[in-house]
Amino acid sequence: MPRETEPSLNERSFVLEALRENIRIDGRDFDAFRKLDLSFGEEHGVAEVKLGLTRVIARISAEVTKPFPDRPFDGVFTITTELSPMASPAFEVGRQTEQEIILSRILEKAIRRSNALDTESLCIVAGQKCWTVRADMHVLDHDGGLTDASCIAVVAALRHFRRRDVSVDGELVTIHSLAESVPVPLSLMHHPICVTFSFYDGGEIALIDATLLEEQLREAELIITLNRHGEICQMAKLGGVPAGALTLLKCTNMAMAKVQEISAYVSKRLEEDAAARNPGGLMAELSAENER
């Protein structure tokens, strides 16, 4: 089974000794993220996130299907992840690694089970037709921080996506084309963001947004998902090092500040993308209509 190249003994001792002296190899503070870059595709619902050297793409799609028998008034929302060998030699096609399983479960808990997407708004005709929204997550480059980057990408893509408008007349359901009606954004209840902490030296040292090298040397990790309102959506502790109540409280407060910053950045990029797609705004549309 393919594996990541493990750090040498010299690398291990050098990185850990630097951390004990409050120094990170890339010069960041312990509570600092790498440079975050968010861009959107030509189609609505495609978001690319670059977090340092880590690069992921999320794509949202929607189709009309039949709802589950036990949830006749709800639509369907699924999240799939793909970690290809292009991103890292540790990933294989057709075989899920432990990291991919953990990533899938964290995204499920953070986004789907926290009801970030209002599935009732996806219902068209109860028990007969509904929207099935699917989020496909592709990892292109892996240098640590996959959970954080993937969560940002999926949430940004959901906020960016537009589905076709639907009208219902009795039992007749009409799905309007983009030329007939303005596409409709998804109804999101909140915007969860993941922040991952890595622990060293028995939990005495905690880092945010560890690189791949730092991840390989950590003793445990803590993934906290919050929204900008300060509500905790999920918390996952992986690894054998215990984390006390004060450590959890400190990490939660740090994560809250980072979630506020990231949420503001995502909103800003969405506004910039909307302005670029509609340069003149409403006045340009009205003038174009008059010219016709």
How many strands, what sense, and barrel or not for the largest sheet?
6 strands, mixed
Termini separation:
64 Å
Helix content: 25-40%
- Alpha-carbon Rg, integer: 21 Å
Q: How many DSSP helices?
A: 6
Look at the structure and give the mean pLDDT.
90
Q: Indicate the multimeric state.
A: single chain
Low-confidence stretches: 282-286
Structural class: alpha+beta
Shape: elongated
Order of helices and strands: HEEEEHEEHEEEEEEHEEHH
Which band does the percent of strand residues land in? 25-35%
- Total E-strand runs: 14
SSE arrangement:
Blueprint: H1 9-20, E1 36-40, E2 46-51, E3 54-65, E4 76-83, H2 98-112, E5 123-125, E6 129-141, H3 146-160, E7 162-163, E8 166-169, E9 172-175, E10 184-185, E11 193-200, E12 205-208, H4 212-217, E13 220-226, E14 232-239, H5 245-277, H6 281-291
Parallel strand pairs: 4-6
Antiparallel strand pairs: 1-2, 2-3, 3-6, 5-6, 7-10, 8-9, 11-12, 11-13, 13-14
Helix pairs in contact: 2-3
